[in-house]
Amino acid sequence: MLKKLLLIVLLLPITVFAVKKECGVKPSYDITISKESVHIFNKKNDLTITPNGNVILNKQSVTLNPPLQKKLAKFQQDLRQQLPQLEQQSLNLLLDVKMTFEQAIKNQLSDDTELKSELNKLYKRLVKLLHASIFTENGNTRFSYQNFNNLKKDGEDIGQRIFYNVVGGSILHFDFFKNLGAIKQISKNEWKAQKPKLKAFDAHICSVITDIDAQYKEILTQLNQSIHK
């Protein structure tokens, strides 16, 4: 339990998925991508785009004019490229942060296998959380907007739950107080070093999601206009 507490004191500030300033755009639709189609849907709208450019909106086939056809082609290409990239970039960053703290723990608290094991467990839980939002397997990608919009909150909740579960049994250990100074110093130094990178990545995520959302809303408006002509 002591090792878990030290780990959470170290990593409780983790905000790999988002910084305090929230992105102004929050998606309101799920997306599934396969070789056969790009499918974007919620309770209000259901849009399917096939690789050859056929479009079905709310069970109605839509005939596209050339400008709209061009927009749909770009939109589909962006989704097929950007969402898997965003997933991989997030995984890479999360692994990089874990390895950075692993090295700091090794340098200042010795190569503690138990503490490293707890760090790895937390890392795996955060990967699982990310994959609930964006997940690619066998060329198919799934994006869940509700999980994506809750990434920051759910990530913080994981840390808090672990903290409150172990704090009662660990706070009386002498080693906790003995190591607390080193833990705080690692946290202060490493998060200061990581902050610019995390902030830049958060802006990147927001930019990608904002671009996707703007394209989708514009296309949806034009598709509805085509149907109701």
From TrEMBL:
<protein>
    <recommendedName>
        <fullName>DUF2884 family protein</fullName>
    </recommendedName>
</protein>
<dbReference type="InterPro" id="IPR021307">
    <property type="entry name" value="DUF2884"/>
</dbReference>
<dbReference type="Pfam" id="PF11101">
    <property type="entry name" value="DUF2884"/>
</dbReference>
